[in-house]
Amino acid sequence: MMIGYISLGDPRRRGTWSGTPHSIFQRLSRDHQVEWINPGGLNTKTIYRYHKVIGKLTGRTVRPYSTLRFASAVGRNLSKHDLSKYDLLFSIGSTEIANLDTTVPIVHLTDATFAQMVGYYDGFDMGEKRNRHANEIQRKAYEVSTQIIFASAWAARSAMNDYHVPEEKINVVRFGANQDVPDRLPERQGDGMLRMLFVGKEWVRKGGSIAVDALTSLQDRGIDAELVMVGCDPPRGVPNVKGLRIIPYVEDVSSYFREADIFILPTRAECAPGSFSARHPRTDCRRSRPPPAAFPTTWRTVSPADCCRWTLGARTSPTPSPSCGAIPKR
């Protein structure tokens, strides 16, 4: 099958949008001929920069990709491509296909709807008028799609309730991990040091300051602990804490996962990330959405006190506290 992969970011690059487009591109390419269709151009770059400047000058939230002007520019760019040569078109972004006019079947994949992001993720609420435009883009994308793949029933329900997407269009397929399976898990170093790992780009949303506070709290309790923070550029004022190591950018984080004892993710809002697949004991913060049904035996809601008690015991025993649920041994 000949598949046209529509994406504003190059899916052939591993670093595009946390690696999800790349992983999907690679998997599709095993069985099909896949070509990247770039809907971007000088017009989209200009519009993007314009809205970014306007946002900074006015202090208002503006998401360039979710504006009618940007969606129209993308549609014009795609009209210049010969889409008839493809058997199927695939797109992760809704803006890319909202104004697409073609008889070629379209499969759209997404992990959330705009309607459910407003008031949940920071940076989505753009005001009544722009929110209405963004929802219109989303609705049109769902309308032109032949089939839609959602990463969770949570997102699928929003599509049906908020955008009236017919059930026969909806498929729920949970995302896999965007990483290769390691040959084996490393043995614990057994030197008494508790090695924590934090991975994330957005300091505030990912809870960077909470992770640093967790490190100092453990040290205040007499625990030898260190925290490696990968992928973030912390704001000024972050204290110089013993055992804290910040690495703004790396090409491959797998070595840091191999060295860590615990993966810590005190995120303020999250769509259950692929980093959970590293098979580490992990701590994260329960927010408004329920825990995934895919993890009935490894996902538990615990109090901060319970989590601290398990962390203290993790230095000497791989057996988890009963209140923490079935945390896999390493």
For this entry, give a set of tags.
alpha/beta; 330 residues; 6-stranded parallel β-sheet; disordered C terminus; 2 domains; Rossmann fold; 5-stranded parallel β-sheet; single chain; 15% strand
Topology, pairings included?
Layout: E1 2-6, H1 20-31, E2 33-37, H2 42-58, H3 68-78, E3 88-91, E4 106-110, H4 114-117, H5 128-144, E5 147-150, H6 153-163, E6 170-172, E7 194-199, H7 208-220, E8 225-230, E9 244-247, H8 254-259, E10 262-265, E11 282-284, H9 304-314
Parallel strand pairs: 1-2, 1-3, 3-4, 4-5, 5-6, 7-8, 7-10, 8-9, 10-11
Helix pairs in contact: 2-3
Notes on the protein architecture:
The protein is an alpha/beta fold. It has 2 domains: 2-172, Rossmann fold (3-Layer(aba) Sandwich); 194-324, Rossmann fold (3-Layer(aba) Sandwich). Helices cover 31% and strands 15% of the residues. The chain contains 9 helices and 11 strands. It has helices at 20-31, 42-58, 68-78, 114-117, 128-144, 153-163, 208-220, 254-259, 304-314, and strands spanning 2-6, 33-37, 88-91, 106-110, 147-150, 170-172, 194-199, 225-230, 244-247, 262-265, 282-284. Helix 7 links the parallel strand 7 and strand 8. Helix 2 packs antiparallel against helix 3. The longest helix is centred in the first third of the chain and has 17 residues, at 42-58. The protein is globular. It starts with a strand and ends in a 16-residue tail after the last helix.
